[in-house]
Amino acid sequence: MSQTTVDTLVIGAGPTGLGAAKRLNQLNQGTWLLVDAGKEAGGLASTDVTEEGFLFDVGGHVIFSHYQYFDDAMAEALPKAGDWYEHQRVSYVRSKQTWVPYPYQNNISVLPVEDQVKCIEGMIDAAEERVRAKDAPKTFDEWILRQMGEGLADLFMRPYNYKVWAVPTTMMQCKWLGERVAAPSLKLVVSNTLNKKVAGGWGPNATFKFPAHGGTGGIWKAVAATLPQEKLQFNKYIEKVDAEAHTVSLSDGSTIKYKHLVSTMGLDYMIDNIKLPASVNHGQLKTAVKDGLIFSSTHVIGIGIRGVLPPRIGDKCWLYFPEDDSPFYRATVFSNYSPNNCPQADKKLATLQYADPSKGKPSSEAKEGPYWSLMMEVSESHLKPVDAQTILAETIQGCINTELIKPDDEIVSTYHRKFTPGYPTPSLGRDAALATLLPALEKFDIYSRGRFGSWKYEVGNQDHSYMLGVEAVNRALFGTPETTLLNPDWVNGRRNHEMRLTPAN
Ligand SMILES: Cc1cc2nc3c(=O)[nH]c(=O)nc-3n(C[C@H](O)[C@H](O)[C@H](O)COP(=O)(O)OP(=O)(O)OC[C@H]3O[C@@H](n4cnc5c(N)ncnc54)[C@H](O)[C@@H]3O)c2cc1C
Q1: Hey, whose CA ends up nearest to atom 15 of ligand 1?
Q2: Which of 57, 61, 70, 251, when mutated, tests ligand 1's pocket best, judged by the most ligand atoms within 8 Å of its CB?
Q3: Quick count: other Cβ atoms within 10 Å of Cβ 83?
Q4: How is the chain split into domains, by residue range?
Q5: I want to staple 453 with a disulfide (CB 3.0 to 4.6 A). Which of 264, 398, 404, 417 is the partner?
Q6: pLDDT at 293 over 90
Q7: Which CATH number describes the domain made up of 3-46+64-83+212-293+427-492?
Q8: Which of 503, 465, 455, 453 minimizes the C-alpha distance to 19?
Q9: 314-347 pLDDT per residue, tens
């Protein structure tokens, strides 16, 4: 079977792999190739379209860029003003049958008085504990208690984070939160509560951009289109990596030889499928994976609804759900991001069901819109199983329970897909595992990077992932230290504008 030889091989056409490819293309030094098992670019930042024409991302994807180099790539890929919509960040927490503006702690004035008291008492205890404590908190749970106290922990932080991560906060570390996160201001909370004030936390100009067409996946297809197409190969599945020989074997029987490998495959998959020389303790690497690399799966459930967007939804963007009246932790009003995320109003669609199926069987006649849509995320782990057969129905019921939709709303499209893995868990053993695994691979010129390539949630968003790829190339080719991988807190605390996409530097 055929063998190709390149200087740099990139595995994966998600944001990390595309970041690596953009940098290789910009530098124009040596030969390179990118391969992906999928049929197109995007990875977990892709978008599906239902039969009826509703778009759904892999959960709520919003860009909060920390990097000029990333912004340059966005502007190059989608350069026209009409390529993007700009939105105010409007976010709430559903709590005690009401919508509490985010951040929760600054708006507890909308909660029942007994809950306000619990929150404030907890914050006073937490402030005292911060003065008393000699050591830094070790678990996420200790961190929550020390920052916010028992009241906010029990009303929001613990139940919400269990729904997100599918493991209790006691099983998570807290270094990933960074040193910058300040405890909420007790004075502000008390003053807002006594003055019955509600205030958003994003500031007056907090906006975000979303692509007009093709959802989040549209961004990454556009980025891929700026690269030389002959260097991007899809439907190519990597089965094995031979560390010493510097080759990968593909499922079609071919092999690729490289000098440097930037891999965005899961780090666990890499360790399972790599051939290492006898001098390397492979068993120790497998143990590090088992002890430290934990993930949860994400179910994405979408519904398309006939009707005008109800005023109770208005300009809401994304909403958090800590309570157990819904299986999801987050809902996104996806039709608010772009009108093209839904079919146009003149498209005729039949009603599949009333939100509450006990309302009867709807007519099968296809009728016009308008339409709007909701996208929900549900986590799953061995500690928090999800029944794939019933989760769609449970999610729709959860939408009714939380007043997102009404029982007689007409549902015209549904979507459900499970993504494994979805979230890299900042487990107690993660950092020790990464400290063993990543350098062991780098000895063989393998740079495992990306959301699951380097397993760091705090630098696992699209902008970070893209830059992990860019910086991996700089490291492989020039030995430049990587800031995103090694200093998440630093890159997250500033605007990083040292590198630009054009002119080349
Ligand atoms: C539920 C959810 C919500 C999110 N919300 C946000 C958000 O609001 N904002 C934000 O910026 N980011 C968000 N993200 C993160 C964003 O999706 C990631 O940053 C990004 O997709 C990670 O890029 P990546 O390239 O590292 O990995 P991936 O996107 O996973 O890409 C990896 C690629 O490698 C390929 N691959 C894997 N194994 C092989 C193999 N053996 N052979 C060949 N190819 C292989 C895959 O096909 C895939 O295309 C979210 C992610 C999820 C899951």
Answers
A1: 461
A2: 61
A3: 18
A4: 3-46+64-83+212-293+427-492, 113-186, 295-425
A5: 264
A6: yes
A7: 3.50.50.60
A8: 465
A9: 999 999 999 999 999 999 999 999 999 999 999 9
